[in-house]
Hints:
The complex is a heterodimer of chains A (220) and B (262). By secondary structure, chain A is mainly α. Chain A has one domain (4-209): Up-down Bundle (Methane Monooxygenase Hydroxylase, Chain G, domain 1), CATH 1.20.58.220. Chain A has 6 helices and no strands. In chain A, helix 1 (4-35) runs parallel beside helix 3 (74-108), helix 1 (4-35) runs antiparallel to helix 4 (118-139) and helix 4 packs parallel to helix 6 (177-209). The mean pLDDT of chain A is 95. Chain B is an alpha/beta fold and 262 residues long. Chain B has a single domain (2-257), classed as 3-Layer(aba) Sandwich (Rossmann fold). Chain B contains 11 helices and 10 strands. Chain B has helices at 2-7, 54-60, 91-97, 112-122, 128-141, 145-148, 161-173, 191-204, 217-223, 241-246, 251-257; strands spanning 14-25, 28-39, 43-47, 71-79, 82-83, 98-101, 179-183, 209-213, 226-231, 234-240. The radius of gyration of chain B is 18 Å and the shape is globular. In chain B, 41% of the residues are buried. The interface between A and B is medium-sized, with 13 and 14 residues.
Amino acid sequence: MERHFDEELRELEEQLLRMGALVGEMISLSIKALAQRETGLITVVREKEDEVNRLHIKIDELCLRLLALRQPLAVDLRFITAGLRINSDLERMGDLAVNITDATRPLLEEPPLKPLIDIPRMSEMAANMAKESLNSFLKRDTKLAKAILNQDNEVDYLKDQIFREFLTYMMQDSSTIKRALELILISRHLERIADHACNIAEDVIFMVMGKDIRHPKLQR
Amino acid sequence: MIMEEREKESSSGVKIKAEGVNLYYGRFQALKDVNLEIKERMITSIIGPSGCGKSTLLRCFNRMNDLIDGVRTTGSIVINDQEIMDKKIDLIKLRKKVGMVFQRPNPFPFSIFENIAYGPKVHGQTDKNRLSEMTEESLRSVGLWDEVKDKLRNSALDLSLGQQQRLCIARLLVVKPEVLLMDEPCSALDPIATEGIEELLHSLKKDYTIVIVTHNMQQAARISDETGFMLLGELIEFGSTVKIFTTPSDTRTENYITGRFG
């Protein structure tokens, strides 16, 4: 039976997907600005952030309204609480994309330290995880959500590798320190983006199965 | 902390144990192999769409269905280690121990005092002072004493519906029951009176085992420790209220409590 409430839930879903699409663009553009040395893209990321922030507030309001007026239960309750969490995860991901552009700006004022290989690879993985986490949300696909969680180790591994690589640069030539640090920071932001994608995947699993899989080592 | 208490597996004893209960109205089977355990000093709510058998099940616990022609019941219901389906049990004693509150408040058309004193009198209490004490005590326990102490001789029918319902609960408490059965006790009441009854139930559960049938799922969610969901005479799911309302196991429960049918 289709309920009027379902229309409101669909609206919430659509807003979250719209926000997710924007955040995905921000992540890709921020890395494109770095990899292709295009300063102009930094402004584009900023503009998108404004829209993401507006959606952040709008989605929170929508969730609160649904909780107050509909007093949802069971799967509806889990959907809306997952929506609240996904909303803040997406907003943080957008902020991290902005942080990437903040680190990129000074980098573009100097010659490249080295041709970038691992960072674009890492960014592709993180952006893909972000996209797939939203797909798992849209399709209520717990298998896909679990697959995202499994990719996180690889991203962490790349971050460590990038750190070791730039550490060597800095030790060999102190004139690289500033640029190497910015690049390490960027890899850190990408790793955080992947973490937020994992949070979304965990929310999807809770929403669909009612099972909280966060903090698996915790005794309950 | 309070929520955690509500969620934890209860270690308290079983007050009512129903096993394989079937009930037929003529050829219509209204209860189908119902098995459940109602725990002592807890509020258990039974929810489900109209006609699912929840009131019928409730009435089994004090054999009220016996009053309806053509009813046949099989299975076992044990309250305090006593099989109450046994044809030979004393129904007056059973109903003294297992009292019932109905949808619409049904005070006797007597004074407030006589409504409360009626039960003890039937059970042999004649001492006037003792009757006064008992009346005050039971009216206090439902929070009605301060509102009615100066008009105990007035007709109970002059009270508001919320007050009448609390009077009916006081009328039960005065004969010292152990189990309170409530069949939609708030459905005739406004939200304020409903809140009053819910608060009252919460304070009564430390002394009584309460089973409540309600159409109002939010009410079940607010007040009960355990919840059972019934559909077409079957008990579909039974468990902690927190579990039922956040992560029910059965799709039929989920569909009902989210308003997808019923």
